[in-house]
Design goal:
Tetracycline Repressor, domain 2
Length: 203
């Protein structure tokens, strides 16, 4: 009975080692150009060991994206706190999100991961963690706006709806019908309308 925690701890350490290697490899070459053998070399493990923990590159990428997400979001929140103008503050967050999607192959890989998620519980869990991290960030932002009197009512459903809207940018960019500037303006216009609608009525 005492052996199980040690096995579990070893598995957690190995999984993190693989993810840290994947994050370095993806950062260096971009998600589309990075292969599983390159990730294995970066993490100093065998390709077979990677497939023991992950189904493939899509799951690896989704999981690697969430590895440092909390610290990343905390840094973004600190940057936004220093911006006084509400529209500029909102635009900063949207620009951060879209800049990540615009990185070489990131949007396409996320779309592939979403398509595969229903058949892959591990990938589904990674994508759920990514979504929950984004929703938590948006919710915190809305709670701060509510404290300043800019938003009224329950923020949790609004945060979830905004996260859904943001991920809709993936489809628009993948179709190529709009460039990233047009997508940015569409998202900002919609978010501003949503926040105005949820704010206090004018006196």
């Amino acid at each position: 009975m005492a052996v199980q925690p040690a096995i579990s701890e070893h598995a957690d350490q190995m999984r993190r080692r693989i993810l840290e290697g994947a994050a370095r490899a993806f950062s260096r070459s971009g998600p589309q150009a990075t292969s599983v053998p390159e990730i294995a070399a970066e993490a100093r493990v065998s390709v077979g060991l990677i497939y023991r923990y992950f189904s493939g590159k899509a799951e690896l990428y989704a999981a690697a994206c969430t590895l440092g997400a909390e610290a990343e979001m905390a840094g973004l929140m600190a940057e936004m706190a220093a911006i006084r103008d509400p529209r500029a503050r909102l635009a900063h967050a949207v620009d951060f999100y879209l800049s990540r999607l615009a990185e070489d192959g990131e949007g396409a890989l996320l779309l592939g991961a979403m398509a595969e998620a229903q058949r892959n519980p591990g990938l589904q869990a990674s994508l759920r963690l990514r979504r929950d991290t984004i929703v938590a960030f948006i919710r915190r932002y809305l709670e701060e706006r509510r404290a300043e009197g800019e938003v009224e009512g329950e923020v949790a459903p609004l945060a979830r709806a905004i996260a859904m809207t943001m991920d809709g940018a993936l489809t628009e960019l993948a179709l190529g019908d709009s460039d990233i500037g047009a997508v940015r303006e569409a998202i900002l216009n919609l978010l501003e309308r949503l926040l105005q609608a949820s704010g206090p009525a004018p006196t």
